[in-house]
Amino acid sequence: MLKQLKAILWLGFFWMLLFFVARAIFLLYYAHTIAHAGIPFTDSLEVFYHALKLDLATACYFLAFPLLFITLEGIFASKFWNKLRSVYVLLMLIIYTLTAVGELGLYEEWKTKLTYKALLYLENPSEVYNSSSTATFIVLLLITIAMVSLLFWCYQRFFNLQLKAQKKWGFSLLFFLILPPFMVVGMRGGLQQIPINQSQSYFSSYEILNHAAVNNVFNLYISYFENREFLNKNPYDFFKDPKEAEERVQKLFDTKNDSTISILTNPKPNIVLIILESWSADLIESLGGEPGITPVFHELEKEGILFSEIYASGSRSEQGMAAIFSGFPAHAYTSVTVQPDKFPKLPSLVHELKDLGYFSSFYFGGQLIYGNIKSYMMFNGFHRIREIYDFDQSLPQGKLGVHDEYTLATMAHELNADPQPFFSSLFTLSSHSPYDQPMEQVLDWGGNEKQYINSAYYTDRSLGRFFEQARKTEWYQNTLFVLVADHSHNSYRNWSPFSAEYHHIPLLFYGDVIKKEYRGSVDTITASQTDIAATLLAQLGDTAKVFPYSRNLFQPDTKPFAYWELASASGIGWKTPSSTIIYDHRYHTYVQDEGPKSIQDSVKRDAYAFLQHIFKEYLDL
């Protein structure tokens, strides 16, 4: 058993060596690019450290079949199993080397990791050959041959441990039964709630170093897995001519002029964006919820602007982040933020604000690897990012991370030292299960969602303490606060997930920087989180043309509508002031079809066009 354990550990070391060599070759091949960007040499060395966890997870996947081979080899001592193991190693070595070398060849032009798109590109090898210089092709071919030959020789010479037959089969079977649980833990990157993903390797503001740190095969698998159902076509083909859908969508965003209602006393205020985890409109008394759940929010409304008809673009946090920071709507099947080859092509509110001279920061008390949010946030280029590991470790924590009152207090304190104007965002977590906030249960009603509404009460109370702290600072009077949910949640009303009510969320603009005549008002425009970017930039006197799916909510002739992705049905939710369309694409049926008969056909065609065009945009990224 010990020899079998040694054999599989030795093979694991070999896979780690392969990953190390491939990464080193990438850094050497692009050393001129790295030097030209002014990247310190020590930062390049950090790549190897930040790659370790994802490499270990990938190595555990690679060890799955050898586990069986080594078990059988220990039982029978047959050279066949050892040869089969060698064939497997050679095959995986060739596959990994091809991905690594393929990335070397494509990275200079694509500036991204190897993805499923590249696999489609490689269907025409002659085109690949013709698009690269002969010298480059020869160099890459030589690297491939050298890597495979030298590393396989190394494996046979140093890492291929041959086993003798065990007198007692029980030890081999015990080895086969005990090791898999440890390997599964390794595959998911540990015992934490969220399995490992590419975000684990992101650490630098230099994208090339993050790409170097992410394991090639792991990234390629995720890319394929997320897109396997629609590799060759858009699953939404309501309009045979995509241009017809595009033109219809364009009309939804057309306005007569660029005028806007100015609500601010200062054209360049600080902006604090608080993203409320899973806050449904049913938590808000003014939006139809029961009183007493979020009393602090209710008081803030009296001095702010409440948007009463806002609907979450998606049903997951990573979708909400893309909607808020990139103005990009959620879409079915997958999320754009989980694919590092796609989200760098999105616009970024943070980038636009940085161009206007804003210092930026982002806070989250938990692990940002969820939904690959960390890598997406690093793409946004925040000057400072805080997650669970970056807070004072003596702060009270729950199962998901640091509780909201402490993350909010940390942000308020650190903003005192930040240059102004600043843009700071915080993502709460206490209103996410398992609801282990440090507070006695206050609300004794709510049925199946009693824990949820108590967690919202806690976050609301934390907001109250945050604003008490903020009002004592010198930056408070020149700050616009934006509070919005990332997505909704089932509430004590138990709406159907197919209903518009289920996706209804709060959005509040608050602060002394809002003109007095607008404080305490309610805006009834039907809209989504995707509209936050254009709305904020318009108030700063800046154009939002880089956000094609974001509307200025203070522009008088903005067309009112809301779209949301119907995750469980791969369909669409669509709402206008007079109509509601809920379409289940799986069964091609309408769950809800309400509105004046005279316009319903046109409303449906708008919804179809939006769904088809957004998914096409996603595929084309």
Secondary structure elements and their pairing?
Layout: H1 2-29, H2 31-36, H3 41-50, H4 52-62, H5 64-76, H6 79-110, H7 116-121, H8 125-130, H9 134-159, H10 169-187, H11 207-213, H12 216-227, H13 242-253, E1 270-276, H14 295-301, E2 304-311, H15 317-326, H16 349-355, E3 359-364, H17 373-380, E4 384-386, H18 404-415, E5 422-427, H19 450-470, E6 479-485, E7 504-510, E8 521-528, H20 532-539, E9 562-566, E10 571-575, E11 580-584, E12 589-594, H21 597-620
Parallel strand pairs: 1-5, 1-6, 2-8, 3-4, 3-5
Antiparallel strand pairs: 2-7, 6-7, 9-10, 10-11, 11-12
Describe this structure in words.
- There is one protein chain.
- The protein has an eight-stranded mixed β-sheet, with helices on both faces. Strands 9-10-11-12 form a four-stranded antiparallel β-sheet, with helices on one face.
- It has 21 helices and twelve strands.
- By secondary structure, it is an alpha/beta fold.
- The model has no long low-confidence stretch (mean pLDDT about 90).
- The chain is globular, with a radius of gyration of 27 Å.
Strand content: 5-15%
Helix/strand class: alpha/beta
pLDDT < 50 runs, ≥5 residues: none
In spatial order, strands of the major sheet run 4-3-5-1-6-7-2-8
Strand count, sense and barrel status of the largest sheet are: 8 strands, mixed
Quantity of strands, as a count: 12
Rg on CA atoms, Å? 27 Å
First and last CA, distance: 50 Å
Number of helices: 21
Q: Tell the overall outline.
A: globular
Mean pLDDT level? 91
What kind of oligomer do you see?
single chain
Question: What share of residues is helical?
Answer: 40-55%
